[in-house]
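Give me structure tokens for this 252-residue protein.
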Amino acid sequence: MVTATFRFYEELNDFLARERRGREFRCRCARMATTKHMIEALGVPHTEVELVLVNGESVGFETLLRDGDRVAVFPQFEALDITPVLRVRARALRVTRFVADAHLGGLAHLLRMTGFDTLYDNHFRDEEIERISGAQGRIVLTRDRELLKRRGITHGCYVHALQSAQQLREVFGRLDLARGVRPFTRCLDCNTPLREIDKSLVASTLPAMVRERYQRFSTCDTCRRVFWEGSHWRRMRAMVDELVAPGDGLSS
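Here you go.
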């Protein structure tokens, strides 16, 4: 056995036992334990980690720990450019898109509302989410720590909030999504991109009040639903405007 000293920073402490939060602690490790193995053994999913320092030097997840090592573990950096430092993932995702687990249906709908490609099915099993994430380069959203520890998942986000609106704010802040917002461009139910449609093509399917009051419509080619800028649209518009407002404190 070897013994190493660990220190986790910022929100990574939320995953630790209370007596280990915000402080250094010594831990016995298996002789061939890697940094990834020990970080997850202590309760922190590897997808939450952006940088690992061993004895002050940046290392990857497969580094073997030696007796007396001092390990510092950091979460995602939002304001600090650490490009010259080795990150634990080989590359960033070029397109921001998601797959959400069975408990985050509300969050999935709100992400679609803001224009982000988000797969969701409450029948998805963990192995299916892992496969989709790897094959399509999707960020896994979940409240299941064990799911994020699966080897095939390289990009993931553990969602702390319980209510969908708060979850949306949390994900926007942590992943800096405001710059990529394209509201009302995806179907909330199907995730299919919406397209504009002439009113004359859908007029016969609309309620009389809608025909009289609205002129602009869009439709989903998958479920055939028709959308217009009614009261529900205005409530969602207000939510989007709050999310992208400068200086609204999303990253706090």
